[in-house]
Design brief:
The protein has 260 residues and is an alpha+beta fold. 23% of the residues lie in helices and 26% in strands. The protein has an eight-stranded mixed beta sheet. InterPro entries: JmjC_dom.
Length: 260
């Protein structure tokens, strides 16, 4: 079932950002990505990239493909089932993502500031995957503005996450698994995202993502410690309470729950 809310203006965002369920957004970023296969060819060679080859029952085939992932012809790689993520995109602002800082990150941070938001981190994460690939079932400690750049994915979550995972359990990482647990279809919120579509994913809400096209590229603007006029999102209060009691853990898992 698709979200009933679509946020198109600042007042709407300020109203809906604090509580699930997820909702569609329309932020007019003026940025054109390079073709996904060109980004894949470049980024797969980077030391900080993380990827998982999927699909084959034959363990030896997966291991062979994993070993060849950085060097095999990119056209061949694009036919393999895989998921890939890169957390440190700032290192590509001068080449692969030229203009991304000026055309995306600066306008978005300016928009947030104008609406009274503060944050402790606001950074992009890049995801690439092929048809049939799925993320793990997981939750993130950070809010995410999910932007489908190329290809098609479906973002799955729940209309009422509290029924499936309490904020306290999410903080402790009890979500992570390869597949979601059994649940009623009516409980699920599945949002099919075409190129250009955007979605707000709330912090500490369980979700999983499936790829529906031969190659799909998305970028998530991830927000750590997002706060508006002194108020955090409702579910994030559980994270704040946990860190108050365990100060040595604070921020060490900020990106750690993003499962590719």
């Amino acid at each position: 079932m698709q979200p009933s809310v679509s946020v198109t203006d600042p007042h709407d965002f300020s109203t809906h950002w604090r509580q699930p369920p997820n909702f569609r957004m329309q932020v007019p970023f003026d940025y054109l990505f390079l073709p996904a296969i060109d980004i894949l060819d470049h980024i797969r060679r980077d030391d900080e990239v993380r990827f998982t080859v999927l699909g084959e029952d034959d363990w030896a085939v997966r291991m062979e493909r994993t070993a060849a992932f950085r060097t095999a012809p990119v056209e061949e790689i694009a036919t393999w089932p895989f998921r890939l993520v890169h957390f440190n995109l700032a290192r590509f602002y001068g080449e692969l993502l030229a203009g991304f800082q000026e055309e995306v990150m600066v306008p978005w941070r300016t928009y947030l500031s104008a609406q009274g938001f503060t944050w402790q981190r606001c950074a992009p994460i890049l995801f690439l995957s092929t048809e049939g690939a799925a993320s793990t079932y997981h939750n993130d400690n950070s809010h995410g503005l999910v932007w489908q750049a190329q290809g098609v994915k479906t973002f799955h979550s729940y209309h009422n996450p509290d029924r499936h995972l309490s904020p306290e359990a999410a903080v402790l990482g009890e979500t992570t698994a390869e597949d979601p647990p059994s649940h009623a279809k009516a409980d699920r919120q599945s949002v099919t995202m075409q190129p250009g579509d955007q979605l707000w994913s709330h912090a500490l809400t369980p979700h999983w993502v499936t790829t529906e096209s031969p190659l799909a590229l998305s970028v998530t603007l991830s927000h750590g410690g997002l706060c508006r006029r002194g108020r955090y999102a409702d579910r994030e209060l559980a994270l704040r309470n946990h860190w108050d009691k365990n100060p040595d853990e604070a921020w060490t898992l900020d990106l750690g729950h993003t499962r590719y």
